[in-house]
Predict the 3D structure of the following.
Amino acid sequence: MGTVSLLRLDLSDGLAPGNKSFKLRGNLRDARDRGFNRLLSFGGAWSNHLHALAALGEAEGFETVGIVRGEESPTPSPMLIDARRWGMQLEYLSRQQYRQKSSPDYLASIQKRYGPCLIIPEGGANAAGVKGCAAIASMLPISRLSEPLIVLPVGTGTTLAGLAVSMSSNRRIYGISVLKGAWDLDLQVGAHLEGQGAGQAANWKILHEYHCGGYARVSPELKAFIIDFERVHQVALDPVYTGKALFAVHQRLKSGQWRGEITAIHTGGLQGRRGYSWL
Ligand SMILES: *Cc1c(COP(=O)(O)O)cnc(C)c1O
């Protein structure tokens, strides 16, 4: 038995709801401090990150450039249509070239092409992103007698690191990896924490068994769970991130591995839900 509370980041921040806006607000601050008025980043045709970047960029007076994985399609995704409407300049890269996007040569070439700009890594996975996510911790219910477990979905581990940095060492955070076999996530979170000089971070652990087939894949069980959850609770979930995190909570409560109080973080991602015809 247990009680689950949801922290609804999907209801925050207007056109850029969810955890991406926290990571990006850290980067926007960085860009302002360094005198950049153009922001450039990377993502797929359904990227929550590029979507939030385009929305926040427009709202805050920055020019934005999105480097999109894959060839341009004659029928662009709703995400790309939104991004373009918000003034984001889009450039398409073949999947093969996209894999080289972090190489120094490629970064030098885009820096030359787009002039002075802040280049933000895919997913907002940098130190400014970690710092921005620290603000999520202050939105969690403050300690009562028992400290609830905190659960959230993990892609790059940036959000998890931001939370862990800003919480005391007696808190327990579980990250649900949405990727299959992403064993290096633990190292990435560790590196982010070290980068923030976090000696006293919260206890955290990444669970690797709830990917449901891999990134953006869906198992029949996950599908059934999301449909049921939405009907019962009237809260929309996306199949890539929040669906898997809440599925994990459900499984662990059912098996008795978890009990007591749990706070799950709804990290948003609902714009991407438009890509699933069964929802
Ligand atoms: C990107 C994203 C995540 C993963 O965040 P990381 O900081 O990369 O771990 C989780 N949920 C949603 C909805 C996202 O868009």
Observations:
- The pocket of pyridoxal-5'-phosphate is lined by residues 18-20, 48, 123, 153-160, 238, 241-242, 267-269 (CB under 6 Å).
- The CA atoms of residues 176 and 193 lie 18 Å apart.
- The longest strand covers residues 2-8.
